[in-house]
Fold each of these.
Amino acid sequence: MFKVTTADNRSPAPETRDRILDAAEALFVEHGLEATSMRMITSRAGANLAAVNYHFGTKDALIQAVFRRRLTELNRQRLAALDRVEVAANGAQPKPSQIVEAFFGTSLELAADTEHGGSTFMRLLGRTYTEPNAFVRQFLAEEYAEVLERFLGALYRSLPGVPREEILWRFHFMMGAMSYAIAGTDALQLFAGTFDDADPQRLMPRLMSFLLGGLRAPLADFSAVDERPGLDAA
Amino acid sequence: MFKVTTADNRSPAPETRDRILDAAEALFVEHGLEATSMRMITSRAGANLAAVNYHFGTKDALIQAVFRRRLTELNRQRLAALDRVEVAANGAQPKPSQIVEAFFGTSLELAADTEHGGSTFMRLLGRTYTEPNAFVRQFLAEEYAEVLERFLGALYRSLPGVPREEILWRFHFMMGAMSYAIAGTDALQLFAGTFDDADPQRLMPRLMSFLLGGLRAPLADFSAVDERPGLDAA
DNA sequence: GTCTATAGACGGATAGAC
DNA sequence: GTCTATCCGTCTATAGAC
C-alpha cells in the first residue's frame, strides 16, 4: 500500500502499480468499468491477480485511483487557465469565449495528447459523466466541485443579463458536445467511414466555434411552451 | 386452459414478456447494461428467471428487444417529421432549423413522455451512444443507418456552402448536447441542487436554441492550427 | 408457459508461503 | 511485494417436471 520513496533516481522501469493503472485505464475505455475484470487488468499489466488488491484494496478503489491520477492535474490546469484569463482581464470581466476556452480548450489539449495516454483517459472521462454507477458519479462530483464553482461563477459574471439557469443548462449542453467530440468516431460507427477529416488538430477550432455559437445563441422564447412545438417557427 | 391465444379484447393485463421488457428498460437506465442481471429483471417483473430465456433466448437478445421496441417507432416518427418539412418546403430546400427540429424535436417529445416510459428509454438511449459493448454499438448503427442518411443528406443540401465534414461534426456535437439534455440532472450530481428550473416543457426551446446557435456558428478558422504542411492553404 | 433445480463459468477478495 | 491456491458469491443458461 505504501510506496517506498527511495532517492534512487535511476530511470525506473514502470512499477507494477503504474502498469496496473495503465492497463485498467485502457481496458475501462475498451469495455467499460463493470465489464472489465481484475483478471483482465492484471493479465494485461503482466501482474499477479493479488497485486491489485495489495496495491489498491478493492476494485472500486482502483477505479478511483485511475481517475484521480489524471483528474487532479487536469483540473489544476483548468483553474490555472482561468486564472490567466482573469489576470489578463486586469480587473474587468473576462469574455465568455475566454472562459469557455479555458475550460474546454484545456480538456481538448489533454485529449490530443496521445503519447502519455491523455487521449485514452479523456475518452474514458467523457463516457463516465453518464456512468450509472452511483459511487463513480459521487466521486466525480467531488472532484469537480471546485472547478465548476469557479467556472460557473465566472460565466455568471461575464453574462450579467442572462438567467443563471440558462447558463447552467448551456454549460451542461457544452459538456455533452465536448464528450461526443472526444469520443469521436470511435464512440459510434453510426457515421462509419464518413469522418473524412478527423484530424485532432482541427477538432479544437471546430468544437470551439460550435460551443460559442450555442452559448451566444438568442435566449429561448418560453411563451409558446404550452403549444405544440410547431415546425414552422423560425 | 388460461392462455387464450385468440383475441380476447378485454383489458389485457401486461403479459410476462412486456413486464420483462419494462423492467429491463428501467434497470438498464439505473444500473447499466452489464450491471443489470437477469435475476434483477425477472425479480422486478414478477417473473421467473427462466422466463427471460424462454421469451428472448439470451440476455443480448433481450437488450436488442428493449431497444428495438422503442427505436423502430422513434425513427419512424423522425422520418415522418422530415417528410412533413420537405413536403411543406414544396420543392425548395427546408431550412436547417426545420431539419434540426424534425430530428431533435421528435427525440425530445419522446423524452418528455413520462407516462409510457418514453422518458426512461431516452435516458437509456442517450447513454448508449457511447456504450463500450461492441454488439450494442453495431446494433444501434444498423438501426440508425437510414435515418442518418436521410437527415444528413437533407442538411447537406440545405447548407450548400458548408463543407460536409463540418456539418457531420456539428451534427455529432448536437447529438452530444441532446444526450446530456435528456440525461439532465440525473446524469451527474455535479450540478447538485443547482438546476432550479428543470421543467421538461422548457427543455425543448432551451436545447433548440443552443443547437441552432451551434449549427449556425461561423466556420472555424483552421489557418492558425499548427505548422503542418498544407494546412494553411485553405 | 411457468416452475425448480442445477450446471458450469467467472466474479472479487483473501490466506499464507516465499 | 509477489506468488499459488482457494473461498464463496453471482452470473447466464438449460434440463426437465408440471
Amino acid sequence: MAVTIKDVAREAGVSVATVSKILNNKPYISEKTRQHVKEVMKQLDYHPNAQASNFKYKRSNNIIFLAITQLHTAFHNPHMFEILCGAESVTKKKKYNLSFVGVSSTEEAYTSVLEIVGRNTADGILVHGSATSRHLVDFLVKSNFPHIIIGRPPFASASCWIDINNRMSGQMAMEYLETCGYSKIAFLGGPKSDEISRHRLQGFLSYMNINGLTTQEDFIKYGEYTKESGFTMMEELLSYGTLPDAVICENNLIAMGAVKAIENKNLSIPKDIGMITFDDYPLSQLIDPPLTVIDIDVYEMGNQAATILLRKINNKNLSVQSFVTLPNLIVRSSTRNPRTKKDAL
Amino acid sequence: MAVTIKDVAREAGVSVATVSKILNNKPYISEKTRQHVKEVMKQLDYHPNAQASNFKYKRSNNIIFLAITQLHTAFHNPHMFEILCGAESVTKKKKYNLSFVGVSSTEEAYTSVLEIVGRNTADGILVHGSATSRHLVDFLVKSNFPHIIIGRPPFASASCWIDINNRMSGQMAMEYLETCGYSKIAFLGGPKSDEISRHRLQGFLSYMNINGLTTQEDFIKYGEYTKESGFTMMEELLSYGTLPDAVICENNLIAMGAVKAIENKNLSIPKDIGMITFDDYPLSQLIDPPLTVIDIDVYEMGNQAATILLRKINNKNLSVQSFVTLPNLIVRSSTRNPRTKKDAL
DNA sequence: TTTTTTTAGGTAATCGTTATACTATTACCT
DNA sequence: AGGTAATAGTATAACGATTACCTAAAAAAA
C-alpha cells in the first residue's frame, strides 16, 4: 500500500542502499543521483517509515511524561499541563514524540515504568515528582534508563531532578515586602508537614535573619490549602492586639480567604495590610485586589527538563546534573508601591 | 543486551515460533510446554520488544492528541488537559500510547498531520477543534486516516466529531431558572460572532419560546469574555427601570464582573438577582457566592472521543458517527431554591 | 605508467517479531 | 486396520530501513 524505500530504489534505478544513504545524508553519492533520487521520492510522495527506522536504530523516539492526575484536584496542580507543554515544545523540535501517561497512584506509576522500560516503548522518561517513589527511582537508576524527575524527591541522589527553589521564593516574598516598607509580617502556611510550605517559610525566616528583622511567633500559622482555612487563620491574626502590616499567604486559596477576613474587618489592602502569595494562577489576577505573586515559569521548567533528558539520552553516561528554577516577582495591587530612595530617608 | 524471543526459545528448548504463539495466545500448544516457556520467560525477565512487534504488525500503537496551545491563555481553555486525561485513560486501557502534540497555529497543525500520516507515527489522531482547518480535515479524509475532531467544525461532514451541546446548555440554564421561580431573565453573552455564545443564546431563547415566556430585548447583551465586560454589561442592566430577577452569564469571567456590579448596587444574590453560568472552572465555586453552573463533563468527552477513535482504527470502514456530550447542572448558591409543588400553588 | 587513494554505488545481513507453510504425532471414525 | 482430522510443533520468509562489507571506476600520487 504505502510506498517504501524499495519502490523508490526501483523507480530511480538504484539500490536501496543508495536511497538510504541519500535519506541520511551520507557521503559518496554523486550530486546527480542524489538529485534524481530526491526527485523520485517527491514524485512518489515517499515518507520513510518511522517504525522501521526506529526499530533498526533500536530506539523508540518516544519520551514519556508520567504524572499522577487526580481528577477534580486540577486546581491544585494547574501547572502540570504547562510543564507538559514546555517539555513538548523541545521534544518536538528534536523530532521526538512525547507521550502522556497519567496514573492515579505511585504504585500504578511503578508498574507503568516497569512496562515502559521492559518493552522499550520509550527512550526516556520525565517523571512528575508526585508520581515518584523510592521504588520507582531505584528501578530507573538500576536500569540505567534516562530519566528526569520534576520536583525533587528526597531519595533521588543518583537521578537528575529539576525543582523549584521554594526557599528563594520565600526570601523574595519577604524581600519585596521590605522594599515596600512593610515590617510586621505574618505568614499563613499550608500543613506543617508540607515540604513546599516548610521551604517557603524557611526562606522567609532566613531573609529576616540575615537582615536583622524579626516577627512575632504567633504571626506564623499553619492550616490547609483552602479558602476557609485562610479565612480563619487571618481572622485569628486580626484578633491580636498588634496587627501585622503585611501577610505572606502560601497559596492562592489561603490568600482568597485572608482577603475576605480583611475585608470583613473593613481594613484595606494594600494600605492597611499588604499581601503577597505564591504561584500565578488565573485566580491571582482576578480576585480583588489582584495579587502580587512570586511565580515560577513552569513552562520554562518543562523546557529545561526535556532538554536535559534528551542530552542524557544521547549521552548515557552524562554526569548527574540537577537544576533549580528561579522564581520571579509579579507585582500587582495587593502590595503598596516600593519605597523610593526619597521615602527611605 | 536485552533478552529477545530467541533467547527464550533457546533456553526453553523450543523454536521461536512456539514462543511467539505462546506470547500471542495462539492454539496448538500443549499446556506443558506453554507453562514451561512462560516459566523461562519469567526467569529471563523477558519482555517482548514493542518496536519490533509494532513494526511487524505495521502499526505504531500510538494515538496523537493534537491541540493548539497558546500559552497564557490556559484559563480560556482549562478543559484541554482534562480532555487529554480522559482520552489517555481509555488509550491506556487498550494498551495504546497517547502522544501530545501542541501547535500554535492551524498551519502548524496541518504540517504536523502531514508528517504523522506520512511517516506512520500514529494509528489515529484526536484533533482538538481549535487546531482544525478545512485543509487539514480534507487531508485526513482523503488519506482515510482514523481521526476524531473534538469540537465540531463546520466543514467536517465526512469525519467523526464529538461536541458539546451548547444549545441544550442554554435551555437547561433557562429551565432551571424557571424552576427556581425567576421570570425576568437577562443574558450576558460573549462576542456576537462567537459560535458557542450564539448557540447558548439560541437554546435560552428557544426554551422561552416553547414555554411561552418572553424577555425584553435589551436584556440580551454582547460583550467580551472578561470580568470588565461583565461588569459594564451588568451595570447597564441595573440602570434600567425594570431590573431582571436573574441573569445568565455566558462565562465565568463575565459572571465575576456581574457579581461585582450587583454587589455595588447593594443587591443580593440570589435573593434579588439569581445567576447561572457555564463551565465549571475552579473559579465557579471559589467566588462569592459560589455559582450555579451548567457544566460539561469534558473528561467523559475525552473518554468517548478516544473510544470511538479506537473503534475506527480497528474497523476502518466504520460509518461516520458523531456524538454530542450532554450538559449537566451543578447547583450552588447563586440561585435560590427550586420551588416545590406547594410554592407553585 | 603504475600504484594508491578516493569516490560511487551495490550486495546482503540484520534488527525482533509474526505468519505461512510445512512435518510429525496423536485421536477419532467407520 | 485404514483413512481422515485434529493437535503440536518447526523452519523460514517476511516487515522496511540501515550498514558493514564489497567492487569498480575515477582521481591522485608515485
